[in-house]
């Protein structure tokens, strides 16, 4: 399904997901996590941060990231080169992250589904 081409330099990649008030992971976050697991992408994720609706702490790292990078929906990815904190890239879409950070090409249907899936309206942060 995906073709992988490893980059030559190290990266730090953070996956930010949302936990709903009932303790469940948001649907799109779960779907993306399952895709990463089935496509052996989790090994490239350095850290996973959450935005937990059950916790009323505005200093959750996931919330701080969403504010800093003006992200309104979960999940999202933050990538930077290990040797350069100034070069931070933020991705709202899984397929965009795959393509630009891991050099994995998703097909057009996957990209469109990723960007325009209306079933994920509850993943607003």
Task: Provide an overview of this structure.
With 125 residues, the chain is of the alpha+beta class. It is built from 4 helices and 4 strands; from the N terminus they run βαβαββαα. Strands 2-1-3-4 form a 4-stranded mixed β-sheet, sandwiched between helices. The chain is globular. The model is unreliable at 1-9 (pLDDT under 50).
Task: List key phrases describing it.
23% strand; alpha+beta; 30% helix; Glutaredoxin; disordered N terminus; 125 residues; 4 helices
Short summary:
The protein is built from four helices and four strands; from the N terminus they run βαβαββαα. The protein is α+β, with helices and mostly antiparallel strands and 125 residues long.
The helix-and-strand class reads alpha+beta
Q: Measure the end-to-end span.
A: 30 Å
How many structural domains does the protein architecture include? 1
Rg over CA atoms, rounded to whole Å, is: 14 Å
Spell out the blueprint of helices and strands:
Elements: E1 11-19, H1 27-38, E2 47-52, H2 61-68, E3 76-81, E4 84-91, H3 94-101, H4 108-116
Parallel strand pairs: 1-2
Antiparallel strand pairs: 1-3, 3-4
């Amino acid at each position: 399904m995906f073709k992988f081409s490893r980059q030559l330099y190290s990266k730090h990649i953070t996956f930010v997901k949302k936990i709903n008030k009932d303790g469940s992971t948001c649907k799109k976050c779960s779907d993306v996590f399952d895709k990463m697991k089935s496509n052996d992408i989790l090994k490239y994720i350095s850290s996973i941060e959450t935005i937990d609706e059950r916790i009323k702490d505005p200093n959750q790292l996931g919330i701080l990231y969403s504010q800093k990078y003006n992200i309104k929906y979960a999940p999202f990815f933050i990538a930077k080169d290990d040797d350069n904190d100034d070069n931070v890239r933020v991705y709202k879409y899984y397929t965009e992250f795959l393509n630009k950070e891991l050099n994995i090409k998703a097909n057009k249907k996957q990209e469109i589904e990723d960007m325009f899936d209306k079933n994920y309206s509850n993943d607003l942060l």
